[in-house]
Amino acid sequence: MLIRAARLSDLDDIVNLVDYYAAQGALLPRSRESLLEYLPVLGVACVDSEIAGIVALHQLETKVGEVRTLAVAPGFHKQGIGEKLVQYAVAQAEKAGMTKVISFTRQVAFFQHCGFQIVARETVPAKYFIDCVGCPMLSHCDEVAMERVLTSTTFSSADDSGSSHPIISKVAGIGQ
């Protein structure tokens, strides 16, 4: 498995995956145009040449990111791909100098397994003013606010695999 930045050629598969989970109510619906704009912050997990999952790291504040649009294709469940996608997003946040990553989720146990803790929604005001105000679920939101405080990480210069971060190299399968 390789986790890498999304490419324009991935867009159809990303749209299909988001549409699949939006139809089930697991993700908010997103237009193709919205996902195209979102492409620079999306990572994809690839197994052979197939998109097995997606994740986005959205910057809410200078030092705060949000893991969002996390989805694993049905044929790839129970293989640890979701956890690796979260690790990838966290590594991207660390690389960008963020000190905290949040997620609003219904998958509390999964995110706790990934090192996140439940927090009060009020501790993430940027999320509310950027996303929640316009959300169709605002009056009956059932998502739990969670955060992972990032430890101070030092980054070595790029190694021979081309990655500047060991987690990204390991998770992404760079050089494998």
UniProtKB/TrEMBL annotation:
Pfam families: Acetyltransf_1. Residues 1-142 form the N-acetyltransferase domain. The keyword Acyltransferase applies. Keywords: Acyltransferase, Transferase. It comes from the Bacteria. PANTHER family: AMINO-ACID ACETYLTRANSFERASE (PTHR30602), AMINO-ACID ACETYLTRANSFERASE NAGS1, CHLOROPLASTIC-RELATED (PTHR30602:SF12). This is N-acetyltransferase domain-containing protein.
